[in-house]
Each structure stands twice: as structure tokens, then as C-alpha cells.
Amino acid sequence: QLQLVESGGGLVHPGGSLRLSCAASGFTLDYYAVTWFRQAPGKEREGVACISSSNSIINMEAARLTISRDNAKNTVYLLIDSLKPEDTAVYYCGAKLTNADVCTYRNGNFSGPYDYWGQGTQVTVSS
Q: What letter would DSSP give residue 87?
């Protein structure tokens, strides 16, 4: 089955770090740009970081977020440092096939369309 699967979420304490994974099944991510999104309770989904097939990156919160990819594992990662309660959200990844090999951000959004979406992984930051 062609799909993306997010993992790595859970209940964590403030101040720590967490690494989320976005793994592709049934297709290779080599030619896809991958974007991480999050949706907090009562808020709209927002894009936080994107990485292209050649490792070009757009990162909206570079002080605390790190996006990377491992093509050998067919996986894209999102590292969140200095976790705080405001990070509590469902985190999603989307994959977009692009001949331009870039991430595109305009008018407050990461441009689609996205060919594949994951089901999301819950991150809860609480004392």
C-alpha cells in the first residue's frame, strides 16, 4: 500500500527533545519534497518545515526545529528541541513530487498539491 506513516509522538515533559519520523511505504521519497505540519486543538493546520529531495530546506522555526531525511531508510525526520506546552498538536507529513527539487512557500502556505499524507502522530507536552 502506498502511504506515509508518522511515528515518534507521545506524552513528554517541557524542556526535552523529541524526534518524529515520517516513513514511506510502497514508494520512494527520493524525488519528493516532504513537509511537516501541525494542528493544535482549536487551530488551523500550519506548515512548520519542508525538505526537498536535494536537502534544500524551508524551516519556519529553525531555533527549535530540525528537519532531515535518510533516503536509505525512506524516512524524513523532525527534531523538536526545548519542548513547551504550546507544541502540543497532531503532527502530519505530506509528500509532493517535484521536478524542480525545491520546497515552495508563498502567501503563508507551503505549496501543494501533496501526493501522499500520513495519519498524524500526537505530541502532548505537559508537566
A: G
